[in-house]
């Protein structure tokens, strides 16, 4: 039986959390004190209705479908598990539903978002707590933590979801993907398809490559840019064989440094790779 596009997206979320070692993140061998492997499994399953909406070319605007996915994802006791991953895959899943899963196709979907997509994005923050950076001074009224209270400002300024994310692209890795042609996502997918071995082993290698390439913006938001740079350098050492990745994984969990943006990028790469024929 062939999996549907929505099922492939759900599977990508499940494969992401099952990948190990994935330094600093929850995986099938490591939990955080307040966030466990089982929470991610439940979150992925809970997001399924929203993923089906995203995969439907005639479905609701992707911002509304994204909110539905987040609402379903939040139906477990751990809190936020895959908010960033769902935001990243949303235009990818819609592009796949239109048979246009390419960087250009995903960018087209992102750029064609409108006010109602932005509204769904803001409402999604009412379902789960998400760590975000403080907004610039001129964006206080657009702080995503305001949820629905920010919608009058969104409508007054006639902002699309793409517009909102473009304002955060300098400090948020998922927003940067939306506005930069999903370059890292598709690059990760290419490596997942071409590397050898079981898919989860390939995913662990690609995660480390992603983390070694750029400072993780979720670490930077929570712990500052210097810590994010240090984590990147340690990942580079692990990638190059100068440090055991398992040791790095244990150390980052103990230190509380969670490269969540890199995990989200892996989820997006896994989705694209599955649609391009990566076998499970």
Largest sheet: none
Mean pLDDT: 96
Contiguous helical run count: 16
Q: Characterize the quaternary organization of these chains.
A: single chain
> Strand portion, in percent?
under 5%
Q: Termini separation (Å)?
A: 13 Å
Walk me through what this model shows.
- The protein has helices at residues 5-18, 37-46, 48-55, 62-73, 83-97, 103-111, 115-124, 151-157, 161-166, 173-179, 183-194, 199-213, 217-223, 225-239, 245-255, 260-275.
- With 280 residues, the protein is mostly helical.
Q: Descriptors for this entry?
A:
16 helices, globular, 62% helix, 280 residues, mainly alpha, single chain
Furnish the topology, listing elements before pairings.
Blueprint: H1 5-18, H2 37-46, H3 48-55, H4 62-73, H5 83-97, H6 103-111, H7 115-124, H8 151-157, H9 161-166, H10 173-179, H11 183-194, H12 199-213, H13 217-223, H14 225-239, H15 245-255, H16 260-275
Concise structural overview:
62% of the residues lie in helices and 0% in strands. It is mostly helical and 280 residues long.
């Amino acid at each position: 039986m062939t999996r549907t596009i929505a099922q492939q997206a759900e599977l990508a979320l499940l494969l992401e959390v099952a990948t190990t070692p994935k330094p600093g993140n929850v995986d099938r061998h490591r939990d955080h004190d307040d966030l466990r492997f089982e929470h991610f499994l439940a979150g992925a399953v809970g997001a399924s209705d929203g993923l089906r909406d995203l995969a439907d070319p005639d479905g609701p605007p992707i911002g509304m479908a994204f909110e539905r996915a987040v609402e379903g994802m939040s139906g477990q006791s751990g809190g936020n598990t895959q908010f960033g991953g769902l935001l990243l895959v949303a235009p990818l899943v819609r592009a796949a539903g239109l048979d246009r899963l390419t960087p250009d196709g995903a960018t087209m979907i992102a750029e064609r978002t409108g006010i109602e997509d932005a509204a769904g994005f803001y409402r999604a923050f009412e379902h789960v707590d998400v760590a975000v950076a403080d907004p610039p001074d001129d964006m206080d009224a657009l702080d995503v933590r305001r949820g629905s209270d920010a919608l009058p400002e969104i409508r007054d300024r006639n902002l699309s979801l793409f517009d909102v994310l473009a304002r955060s692209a300098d400090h948020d890795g998922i927003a940067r993907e939306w506005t930069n042609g999903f370059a890292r996502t598709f690059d990760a997918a290419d490596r997942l398809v071409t590397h050898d071995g079981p898919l989860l082993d390939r995913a662990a290698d690609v995660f480390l490559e992603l983390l070694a390439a750029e400072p993780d913006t979720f670490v930077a938001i929570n712990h500052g840019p210097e810590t994010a740079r240090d984590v990147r350098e340690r990942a580079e050492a692990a990638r190059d064989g100068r440090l055991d990745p398992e040791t790095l994984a244990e150390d980052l969990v103990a230190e509380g440094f969670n490269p969540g943006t890199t995990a989200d990028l892996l989820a997006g790469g896994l989705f694209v790779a599955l649609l391009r024929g990566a076998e499970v």
